[in-house]
From TrEMBL:
Domain of life: Bacteria
Protein name, as recorded: PP2C family protein-serine/threonine phosphatase
E.C. code: 3.1.3.16
Lineage summary: Bacteria, Bacillati, Actinomycetota, Actinomycetes, Kitasatosporales
SMART domains membership: PP2C_SIG
Hydrolase found in the keyword field: yes
Length: 391
């Protein structure tokens, strides 16, 4: 794949942070046994530390290998015997607790085998989902006209099904048109809708001279799919942002259909491009030829980066349930490079979530370059949205 598209990159970014915590947790069973020894020493055997010893192999089951789990149980038994010998001569009464510890070690080993198998199956499912996602989403070029292009697709840890996030960019006689969308649901139904929207977007981009007509065609394609579907697929919809830069790159037109507001990163600031008029997602409102499609106009200065993303980013939560805000992460100076901007977003999300992304996330960024070195450098900073009313 080209420089711009990195699917499954979580394997080499946030997932590394997630696995960094595992080695620390692997010491938990040993720490429990040590705690039992310390408590027994300081209380001179007056405190029953057997419950701690019992907990050690149970804690080892999800954290260690099968050999490590069994070893933990054996060590816990030996420590328990040693503590008994230090206090008194072992009696028949000790048979019950130590037999229980042996049984719990066997149970912990069985659980370890089951967990290992489930993890292996989930890992395989994630890999299959990533391959399918790679097959569905197009490989975008590194450059389109004066735009440098970068994309990312991050697969969530807990997900093992292909998601409904998609992005596309298409150069046409009417300008450069971009799409990012998030289809409701996952699996085969989402794949069908993703393919339909991608095909419809490329067709409409070539043949529809106005951006509102592109949106109408996407809406019509969603409605057609819903009419011929059943079950959950019949209730499908998709949030989307359709954007356009005319051939002279003079203005950025954005039609937002219930999607996360794009970000414009320029000169150390990140600005949310909020829609002036909220609109329903695709599939939730049939559009007639006379219906108005809200389109907002924004300036895209040379060197600025437009960032579009799905809700896997702004709805990523930390341990306290706080949502991630991409604006602070991008409110600093960046080189005119969309890859650097997306890397900064993903690094910030990974820190915020501890490396555990809760939902798939698609990101798409473009940076406007000079047509001629030094040209257009005096263009104004980005303005807030101003509506372009289109029928």
């Amino acid at each position: 794949m080209g420089r711009g598209t990195r699917i499954g990159r979580k394997e080499s970014s946030g997932r590394e942070e997630s696995t960094e915590r595992v080695p620390r947790l692997r010491w938990l069973p040993a720490a429990i046994i040590v705690a039992a020894l310390v408590l027994s020493f300081f209380t001179h055997g007056g405190l029953n530390t057997f419950p701690l010893l019992v907990a050690a192999p149970v804690a080892a089951a999800p954290l260690l290998s099968l050999r490590g789990t069994i070893t933990t149980g054996v060590v816990a038994n030996l420590v328990g015997l040693g503590l008994v010998f230090l206090k008194r001569e072992p009696s028949v009464d000790e048979l019950v607790p130590f037999s229980s510890l042996v049984v719990l070690t066997v149970v912990a080993a069985f659980l370890n085998v089951l967990l290992t198998r489930d993890r292996r199956e989930l890992k395989t499912s994630r890999e299959v989902a990533a391959v399918l996602q790679r097959a569905v989403l197009p490989d975008l070029p590194d450059r389109v006209g004066r735009l440098a292009v970068a994309t990312r697709y991050e697969v969530a840890h807990k997900e093992a099904a292909i998601g409904g996030d998609l992005f596309a960019i298409h150069e046409t006689p009417h300008g450069i048109r971009m799409l990012i969308a998030d289809v409701r649901g996952k699996g085969v139904e989402a794949v069908r809708t993703v393919n339909a929207l991608l095909g419809s977007f490329h067709e409409a981009s070539d043949h529809r001279p106005d951006l509102p007509d592109v949106v109408r065609q996407l809406e019509g394609r969603m409605q057609a799919g819903i009419r011929h579907a059943s079950g959950a697929e019949a209730e499908s919809f998709a949030t989307a942002v359709v954007a356009e830069l005319p051939p002279d790159y003079s203005v950025l037109r954005v039609a937002n259909r219930g999607h996360e507001a794009p970000l414009l990163v320029h000169e150390g600031k990140a600005l949310l491009l909020e829609p002036t008029t909220p609109a329903l997602p695709l599939g939730l409102g049939l559009l007639d030829a006379d219906d108005e499609i809200p389109v907002d106009l924004f300036d895209l200065p040379v060197g600025a980066t437009l960032v579009l993303y799905t809700d896997g980013i702004n709805e990523a939560r930390d341990a306290d349930g706080v949502f991630f805000d991409p604006v602070p992460a991008l409110s600093r100076h960046f080189p005119p490079d969309p890859d650097a901007v997306l890397d900064a977003v993903l690094s910030a999300v990974s820190r915020h979530t501890g490396g555990n992304l809760q939902d798939d996330a698609a990101l798409f960024a473009v940076t406007l370059d000079d047509a001629v070195p030094g040209a257009d450098r005096q263009r104004p900073a980005p303005e807030t949205g101003r509506p372009e009313h289109s029928a």
